[in-house]
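Step 1: inspect the first sequence and its tokens.
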Amino acid sequence: MRAAHKDITVFVYDGVRLMDVAAPLEVFGTASGLGAAYTQTVCSADGGPVITSTGTRLGADAAVSDVAATHTLVVPGSDDLPHRPPPAGLLEAVEALAGRSSRTASVCTGAFALAAVGLLDGRRATTHWRHAAALARRYPKVTVEPDAIFVRDGDGRTYTSAGVTAGIDLALALVEDDEGAALAREVARDLVVFMRRPGGQSQFSVAARTPSPQHDALRALLSEVGADPAADHSLHALARRGGLSARHLTRLFNEQVGSTPAVYVESVRLEAAQALLEAGESVTGAARRSGLGSDESLRRVFLRHLGVTPSTYRARFRTTAAPASAPAR
């Protein structure tokens, strides 16, 4: 049985990022076409059109005063929110709409608007990786998780997401909460996107978020780990290949990478296992080919870092390449 009818209100304002608006609208609109009971309203402060970050004129369906109540409020971001005072009326509108909604979600830097009116005080939240430090610094009552795709607060009433396309992940999570995984997966297939990246997944790959080491031997070792995660990358093997003592190598890792060799290697192997599962590899195959070894080792690492089992992760990443009825490989 489908869930009850739900109103989705997306609040827009001058300077709003067009993709932050469009991504949730596409997800909820597609869900409606597949049988969900969503009604979407684009709302501006006065009901008039706004100019987005691309210069596109975007019309609104309603003014804030026209919205008596809504199930879900979505607040998209803008390039200005982390750097400048919010546009006139934005914070008042967000506060008013949030007070009439059952749950509130932000996309990208929309988290700054939620934080500014106190909606994130005492809560966990995320935003675009580039602005996470600014959010934490400006709003110390917010626990910022800078590397998450999206964060669902414990009571399920507040959601925040990372930048731009993470709004799709956020909206799919909301659809899954409302209508179940089967419909959310159909939406993902229709949009030709993964179903769905777990909220705790990193916004960036291990290599992309690791500072480039200054030490030549260390830089070469990181390349070796990334090129063949399943090889022997124990501390002593790495030290031997790098021509360094184990103690000196550990010190270099801590100083230039920000972690121990073991932690770095596990992160690379976890990322390799994720890619293998996304591609349809079996849990056993992903464990072996990533270097994490056994199914149980893979399970422990996934639960510790992602909060889901490998089999659950694999199911959520099935794409349009495999029909819904195709047996798991």
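Step 2: inspect the second sequence and its tokens, then contrast the two.
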Amino acid sequence: MTEAAKDLPDVGPETAARNLWRQRDFLLLWSGQTVSETGSAVTQVALPLLAVVALKASTFQVGLLTAATTLAFAVIALPAGAMVDGAAKRSVMIVCDVLRLLVVGSVPVAAAFGVLTMAQLYVVAVVAGVCSVFFDVSYQSYVPSLIRADHLMSANGKLGTTQAFAQLGGPGLGGGLVGLFGAAGAMTADAVSYAISVLSILGIKTREDPPPARPADETLRRRIAAGLTFVFGHSILRRVVACTGTANLFGGMTSALAMVFLIRVLHVRPALTGLIMAGAAIGGIAGAAFAGRLAKKIGSARIIWVSMLVFSAPQVIAAAAWRGWGVLLFPLGWGITGFSGMVYNVAQVSYRQSVTPPELMGRMNAAVRWVVWGTLPIGGVLGGLLGTLIGVRPALWLAFIGAWAAGWFVFFSPLRHMRDVPRPAPASAPVVTS
């Protein structure tokens, strides 16, 4: 935590929310990420559409492409966390955005010259995924250096609103851009969004504290082990990881199957798929907007399992959608997924940031992401396989039910007996795992 943040007086949650609107550096970070997340949401629509429509990819190939976008989290997340803890996180974020600008921007260029292939899409997905690993680990570790712990729930709610807003506006914008410029041309918007993100980060004046000096005999393996030991030695964190990882496994299946389901089962026109996905994101915006209030009413600890087992239960109706007006069941169920998932994410990320000492923040985030994002490519491949073997709709039913059932991991944990997340211990206090 920066010295500026340390000097702030203790405030209540409502005052904390107001203070964030007056913190220039947080607003810069937030606004830049709003644009970047929207651009990424355009690519989420354009990339599979490019594969399905322009390159005539099979269901299995689309599953592999979905898996490739998150493969890096399974492969390099752990060393990335150790590296981020020993580096200036702001600089890492800038470098990652510049690299993503270049690699995503290569797609419309290749398409313009008629040389775009599935092989290039796989490479773009993997390279952009590597950059996303380093950026996301740095990003979640950077936020606590800008603000007080009192502000974390409010800040994560606002950042969650950004993600949900991107899922609302991005797919709709993506669908419109696909209709106007084609799927490859639409990805230009994502490349431009990374440039805007770089400018916003460069404008931040607050400087994070320098990373602590690393002992000369501390190897990369030992630093990675320290992060894993902290996460999996903590009785609540390891169950949060199990819940999120399982939910993402089945979420990877739904991501791989969703576009195929809309186009080939429900016969939705490609230009309209973005609008359907955008309508579903309203749930995510509502979840981010109400996460703080719900946590206050239900309990900031209790809301973690309530969001998974209670709020997300009706999401399965998306798999029951049919052609015609029945297609509306898909965005309705997807919206319930967005609402419950956003409430859960705001709560569990705030909990993780509250219980983790600053010197372990990067490794904690990396260890968690190694598991919870590492299951996404497995889910993507599994979705493609099951969609081919048993049909797209039955595989989608299985995916939604599995994502809901993941909530039992956090229900059968000490969270069940807690109402609220305890206040974080002072930075100088010894780390004690449960």
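Step 3: confirm your contrast with the notes below.
The mean pLDDT is 80. The radius of gyration is 21 Å.
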